[in-house]
Amino acid sequence: MGSKNNPLKIFTGRATRHLSEKICDSLDVDLGLSSCPVFSDGEFEPCYEETIRGAHVFIVQSTPPPAENLLELLLMVDAAKRASAAHVVAVIPYFGFARQDRKDKPRVSIGAKLMADLLSAAGVDRIITMDLHADQIQGFFDVPVDHLFASAIFIPHISKMELPNPIIASPDVGGSKRANTYARMLQTDMVICHKTRAKANEVNNMTVIGDVKGKDVIIVDDMIDTAGTITKAANLMKREGANSVRAFAAHGVLSGPAIDRIERSVLEEVYFTDSIERNINCSKIKYLTIADALGEAIRRVYKNQSISSLYYR
Predict the structure, then answer these.
(1) With a threshold of 0.90, does the pTM exceed it?
(2) For residue 44, which of 14, 89, 64, 23 has the smallest C-alpha distance?
């Protein structure tokens, strides 16, 4: 795929190589040649090993911790601009630091805005991402943002499961808009969990708003980090009489005790996209690929076509 004037070239950072390879397979193109030598002190130097002059360059890299994943993406964008690429698009399946989207207490950074500024300063022309923690983060950028949703992959999969009595649940009030989208598309009812936090990553108290008795509950969220909220919600719904509880989340951050909590919880299955690459040993965790969705978004952006039909919202 490509034209003589502005050929399409896809490159990957080290954090997202496996997904990048699947995206290239979906588009039937070769993954671009690049390297990232590392110096003795840990400094690294991304480098393109083929010409990209005049090319439409797509760089695929999620930015979960450590922060060098973000820095590698910034360096790759800068290198592409300095190598005379015609357009540079950052494909960020998981946009890290997105939870810092507002000043919710004194003397803190708005990290998501800073990340957007850094990408703009590096010279990015466009962003393709999926399931931002908050929709308003799109407004932090001064370049176009194509915001895809995992619901385009999850909703058809949930439909195929043919659960006898499904109901959609949000693990917190903030996710009610997302849950409502799933409930509307699947033509089911929804319930909401109300939680209070003692501190970050620690849920203090939780109650269910709605009736889950005899229902097959599907909890939907944008990410699962330590799995404290999702497992507490699942256990609570089971106590309230739910027949079964499953979870669907776009991004599996899965830090700290997350795997152990999921394994010990009443959750029957937990589905993620492959936006973050993890080597997970847990019988309950399953992955659905977003390679075709991202590949089609890349193809349409390259050809200046609409991508609005690619997602549910």
Answers:
(1) yes
(2) 14
